[in-house]
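Quick one:
INPUT:
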């Protein structure tokens, strides 16, 4: 998920964009859809643990959109493709994630892809983002590189 902006430059993690949305707590079910609490699942990656697979990174990036953690999204974006600023729409509510497929992306690979559909609502209207994201190992860690939007 690559929500870029072309607005003027300013600190990316300023204000409420860097703090979790109040509805997600450490004990909440993880927004990524796996059967674990946020703190044990994506919350630990947001706090600095390394993602073991590209799917785990993609799920944690989805969860970062849910909790509006722009700092994490920027940190896990390949520096060659990362925007200077990431503005997250405060009116957009992410509703669920479907992982549709993965290729490579394990501890034994240097690249991988994850195809997914992320559901959201903006202004009371539902929508979805269907994307095939490409991940690479960079500096020993998985990072988001690019995406092809499927519709």
């Amino acid at each position: 998920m690559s929500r870029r902006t072309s607005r003027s430059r300013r600190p990316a993690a300023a204000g409420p964009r860097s703090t979790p949305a109040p509805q997600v707590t450490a004990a909440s079910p993880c927004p990524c859809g796996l059967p674990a609490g946020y703190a044990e699942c994506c919350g630990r990656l947001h706090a600095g643990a390394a993602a073991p697979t590209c799917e785990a990174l993609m799920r944690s990036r989805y969860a970062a959109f849910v909790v509006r953690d722009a700092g994490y999204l920027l940190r896990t974006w390949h520096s060659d493709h990362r925007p200077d600023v990431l503005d997250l729409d405060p009116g957009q509510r992410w509703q669920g994630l479907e992982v549709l497929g993965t290729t490579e992306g394990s501890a034994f690979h240097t690249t991988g892809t994850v195809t997914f559909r992320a559901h959201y609502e903006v202004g009371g209207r539902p929508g979805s983002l269907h994307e095939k994201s490409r991940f690479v190992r960079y500096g020993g860690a998985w990072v988001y590189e690019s995406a092809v939007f499927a519709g």
